[in-house]
Amino acid sequence: MGINVLVADQERAFADALAGRLEAESDIEVVDAVQVRLPGLSLTERKSADVLVLDGDLPGEAANRLCAEMSGRVRRTRVIMLTSTSGPARFVQAFRAGAAAWVRKDESVEHLLRVIRGVVRGETWLPPVEAGNVIRLLLRERDRQSEADRLLAALTPRERAVLVCLAGGAGDRAVVADHLHISINTVRTHLQNLMAKLGVHSALEAVALTRDREDWFRPDDV
């Protein structure tokens, strides 16, 4: 059975040329070649594909958004980010969005074909020369997260409750006070204390430490 491939790139000529080259392979069928330019564009209405070769140089977070959309539970398409640039932070963001591989546009088509066939077998690929940088980045992120966890654990239940309210979108101290049935002055005191414990200078910095920590929020926090 052949591998169904969808090609999506900012440049129509590039998408068509790549699709034509891939189509020449006996085990690959290109289901579509799409020009993607608008950040809000969706690919879910396109034909189902085993592999999406996606332009990773789309502006903003468009590439990662499309990657998450296509590699999710419904589509389960294996996504290959095809880019002209690279970097460990971009690799990590792409793989967290669900990418299966990262290939530079200056690589040969033969290399891309090996990656396409590999991801269909369940393989994950990134440039070997970048593997060490990615590992070091992940280790630094782990260390920062461990330190943030240690600082958050030092908060009192009331300080924690104030921070939970702020993280939930209650930007006004009066709203926090009303929700917790305490005075605005008490909210201010708790906020000053928790900021000092966390070593931050603003409520926004404090809230940032709770990002991606869904298990940190407990029903009895508010």
Descriptive labels:
disordered C terminus; Rossmann fold; 9 helices; 2 domains; single chain; 222 residues; Arc Repressor Mutant, subunit A; five-stranded parallel sheet; elongated; alpha/beta
Structure description:
- The protein is α/β, with parallel strands linked by helices and 222 residues long.
- The protein folds into 2 domains: 3-131, Rossmann fold (3-Layer(aba) Sandwich); 152-221, Arc Repressor Mutant, subunit A.
- The protein has helices spanning 12-23, 62-71, 88-96, 109-120, 128-153, 157-167, 173-180, 184-198, 203-208; strands spanning 3-9, 28-35, 51-55, 78-83, 99-104.
- A 5-stranded parallel beta sheet has the order 2-1-3-4-5.
- It is elongated.
- The model is unreliable at 218-222 (pLDDT under 50).
Identify the CATH architecture of the largest domain. Answer: 3-Layer(aba) Sandwich
Rg computed from alpha carbons, rounded to a whole number of angstroms: 23 Å
CATH class of the largest domain: Alpha Beta
Low-confidence stretches: 218-222
Largest sheet: 5 strands, parallel
How far apart, in Å, are the first and last alpha carbons? Answer: 55 Å
Strand percentage lies at: 5-15%
CATH topology of the largest domain: Rossmann fold
Note the quaternary state here. Answer: single chain
**What's the helical proportion of residues?**
40-55%
Order of helices and strands: EHEEHEHEHHHHHH
CATH homologous superfamily assignment of the largest domain: Response regulator
Number of strands: 5
Instruction: Give the averaged pLDDT, no decimals.
Output: 81
Strand order in the largest sheet = 2-1-3-4-5
Any idea what the shape is?
elongated
Number of domains: 2
State the helix count.
9
Broad structural category: alpha/beta
